[in-house]
Specification:
- This protein is about 15% helix and about 45% strand.
- By secondary structure, the protein is of the alpha+beta class.
- The longest helix is centred in the N-terminal third of the chain and has 18 residues.
- The termini are far apart.
């Protein structure tokens, strides 16, 4: 055999192997692992790594032992390797697109009905108030013959959850939710007054949420919703505070930043039964909740403002990693309506404690 033709003959098996690999592109890792030649095996892995991941919810890949174009060519029975890829939210996507998870707006995030989920923040903090609001309790202290003032230090906690009652309500892409939030202010260190719970607010609500999945200038408009909300402090007589409202909300997100805006209309009550007829003058007609998530930290703020009365409030928070789902939490508040008993009282406070992200 001439020396000049020997390299050509030796290279024929490689050429055939390369041609077969080009016709049958790798689908799963096993396709590449079975290639004996080191160079071709490496090229196979490179090609598989460069293939875009499937974007469908479930993609099935089949690698038959018999050529599907000519099933009669092989005598061996057909065998198949099946790989199922299901889209799941990654930790990074959950951090950047929290509203999709928070409201279960897309299929990978749906958990079904009657599953408890967080609603607003759940926290326990020790607070320090610049000037407590003693006025609502003065009459009761005089009747009891006591001269005990409120303590500037409190323990404040908030418990908030929601659950989906119905998916696809009325044959439309509408989810119905029930939510409940309880916010308490405890004079834990005020032993002279027997460490009372100064104020507790109860807030049940029902919400209809519609996913929008719109995008404008790189900003995702995630959802819109309607809600019916009741809030009260469970007291009677001079300490009673309550109101009912309907509200509309919408949410947007971009690169770890999210915003939820609400506008509301208070439902009128009988004048003889309304304990706080001027409540909207202080609580406003809407609010804006902002949040930014980065590297396990959550920076948040909620703003309210009434243009007609120039009254409002701002609450700012910073949650930072501690362990697992538990985060440290710092909070600052300035304005009206930190609690219902203080709806018409300007309050300033700071707090530090823990926040749960369950």
């Amino acid at each position: 055999m001439p020396y000049s033709t020997r390299p050509l003959l030796l290279s024929l098996p490689l050429l055939f192997s390369f041609n077969a690999a080009a016709q049958d592109a790798p689908k799963v890792l096993a396709d590449c692992a079975n290639i004996g030649d080191n160079t071709l095996r490496l090229a196979c892995f490179d090609k598989l790594a460069a293939t875009p991941a499937p974007r469908t919810e479930a993609a099935v890949v089949v690698n038959p032992a018999v050529d599907p174009a000519n099933p009669a060519a092989g005598a061996a029975p057909a065998t198949a390797t099946v790989a199922v890829v299901t889209a799941q939210p990654s930790a990074e996507s959950s951090a950047k697109f929290s509203q999709f998870d928070h409201w279960e707006l897309d299929q990978p995030y749906r958990r079904g009905v009657f599953k408890f989920r967080p609603h607003h923040a759940n926290y326990l903090i020790a607070t320090r108030t610049y000037r407590p609001n003693d006025k609502p309790y003065e009459v009761f202290r005089e009747l009891a013959g006591e001269d005990i003032n409120l303590s500037k230090g409190e323990l404040a906690y908030q418990l908030s959850f929601k659950l989906k009652m119905m998916e696809g309500a009325f044959g439309k892409p509408v989810d119905l939710w029930f939510g409940y939030t309880q916010n308490s202010f405890w004079q834990a260190a005020n032993s002279k007054a027997s460490s009372p719970f100064r104020e507790t607010n109860y807030q049940p609500e029902v919400m209809a949420i519609v996913p929008l999945k719109l995008e404008l200038g790189g900003v995702k408009i995630t959802h819109a919703g309607l809600g019916l909300n009741h809030q009260s402090n469970g007291q009677s007589g001079m300490l009673s505070r309550s109101w009912n409202r309907i509200y509309a909300q919408f949410g947007i997100e971009k690169d770890g930043f999210s915003a939820t805006g609400r506008v509301w209309k208070r439902l009128n009550e009988n004048a003889n039964e309304d304990d706080n007829p001027d409540l909207v003058d202080y609580m406003g007609r809407g609010d804006l909740a902002l949040a930014y998530r980065r590297d396990g930290h959550i920076y948040s703020s909620t703003l309210r403002y009434n243009l007609h009365t120039n009254r409002g409030a701002i609450q700012a928070g910073w949650a930072f990693p501690l362990a697992g789902n538990l985060k440290g939490y710092a909070q600052a508040f300035a304005g009206y309506g930190q609690s219902l008993i203080d709806y018409n009282y300007f309050q300033r406070s700071i707090g530090l404690g823990m926040l749960g992200t369950f």
